[in-house]
Each structure stands twice: as structure tokens, then as C-alpha cells.
TrEMBL record:
The keyword DNA-binding does not apply. InterPro entries: Hemerythrin-like (IPR012312), RIC_family (IPR019903). One of its GO terms (molecular function) is metal ion binding. The keyword Iron applies. The lineage of its organism: Bacteria, Pseudomonadati, Spirochaetota, Spirochaetia, Leptospirales. This is Hemerythrin HHE cation binding domain protein. Its main location: cytoplasm. Residues 108-162 form a coiled coil. It comes from Turneriella parva (strain ATCC BAA-1111 / DSM 21527 / NCTC 11395 / H) (Leptospira parva).
Length: 175
């Protein structure tokens, strides 16, 4: 968890219950991710239309973005509709560690143990954002696009950290 900034809004998260952590994730990171991906969608279309002789990174971004966006929307959906309700139920059932371990099978097991946020693609998007900013940061639409991409990847890093380093280890350890 980020601790350098004493006012960081997430400082109290480790003290939250599982249900509170999930509610925080949905209200902040999930909501933010959905919204900013829509904005990025529009900016890519606009940039392709407006910028004459755009940097080659724009075409590369446009090519990978559709799938990235779709996969991320599915990921958020699956968490909110399958994984989080399961954790909520588990929390209320008062099951002990062994019972919990027996409960995570099939898709839940997969979602917990192989939880993936497509880190490689995030890295790729980050690099493309840097290049777009370097080569076309003086063009307003590219400046906005690269800035939004940066915001997305920064937010995702925090989001992934809360899930992979705090919430899921608690479940896997049966806390
Ligand atoms: Fe999430
Ligand atoms: Fe996730």
C-alpha cells in the first residue's frame, strides 16, 4: 500500500473489512476505470481523425486498445458479479479456514489464484502513452490521450495492489 503520502486516501484500507475493501474498490477504482476507458476510446477516434501524420504509436495503440478495453470491462464485471459476492457471502457465513479452502473451486479458484490484470498490456500502454506524449504532446488531442492513459495505468497499479496484496491473500489464508 502507498504510505509515502500521509494524506493518501487509501492509508486506512488495511483496516477495512473485506466487504468494506470491495465497496471501496467498486466505488473508486472500478468506476474510474470504466469512465476513463470510455474517454480514451473517444480520444483515440478523435486523434485518428484529426491528427495529420500521427506518430506510429497511435496506430499501435488503436490496434490493441479495443481488446484491452473489452477484457478490462469483463474483468470488472466478473469481480462485481461473481468474485465479490462470493467473498461477501463467505464473510457472513463464519466459515473457518479449511471450509473456505474447500469452497474455492472452479471459476472462483481460478479468479483468486490466477488473478490477472494483464500487466504486460498495461506496461505496453504505459510505454505508448510516453511515446505519444514525447512525439505529440504539443498536439492537444495527443496530449490529452497520453495523459488519460497515464491516469489509467497509475490507477490500475493501485487497484491491483489492493486486490493482489491485500484482499485476495486474506481469502487465500482464510482470514
Ligand atoms: Fe477490481
Ligand atoms: Fe482485479
Amino acid at each position: 500500500m502507498k504510505t509515502a503520502d500521509p494524506n493518501f486516501i487509501g492509508n486506512a484500507i488495511p483496516e477495512y473489512s473485506n466487504v468494506q475493501v470491495m465497496s471501496y474498490l467498486i466505488a473508486t477504482h472500478h468506476e474510474f476505470t470504466r469512465n476513463i476507458m470510455e474517454e480514451i476510446d473517444d480520444l483515440i477516434v478523435l486523434a485518428q481523425k484529426e491528427v495529420q501524420e500521427p506518430p506510429e504509436e497511435l496506430a499501435e495503440l488503436a490496434a490493441l486498445w479495443k481488446k484491452y478495453h473489452r477484457d478490462m470491462v469483463m474483468h470488472l464485471h466478473d469481480e462485481e458479479q461473481i468474485l465479490f459476492p462470493w467473498i461477501r457471502e463467505l464473510d457472513h457465513s463464519g466459515k473457518n479456514r479449511d471450509e473456505v479452502a474447500r469452497t474455492y473451486t472452479g471459476p472462483i479458484k481460478h479468479m483468486l489464484e490466477e488473478h490477472q490484470h494483464h500487466e504486460e498490456e498495461i506496461e505496453r500502454v504505459k510505454k505508448l502513452a510516453d511515446q505519444l506524449s514525447k512525439k505529440g504532446g504539443f498536439i492537444p488531442v495527443l496530449a490529452r490521450l497520453s495523459y488519460k492513459l497515464r491516469q489509467l495505468t497509475n490507477d490500475l497499479e493501485e487497484h491491483m495492489q489492493i486486490e493482489s496484496e491485500l484482499l485476495f491473500p486474506r481469502i487465500l489464508k482464510g482470514n
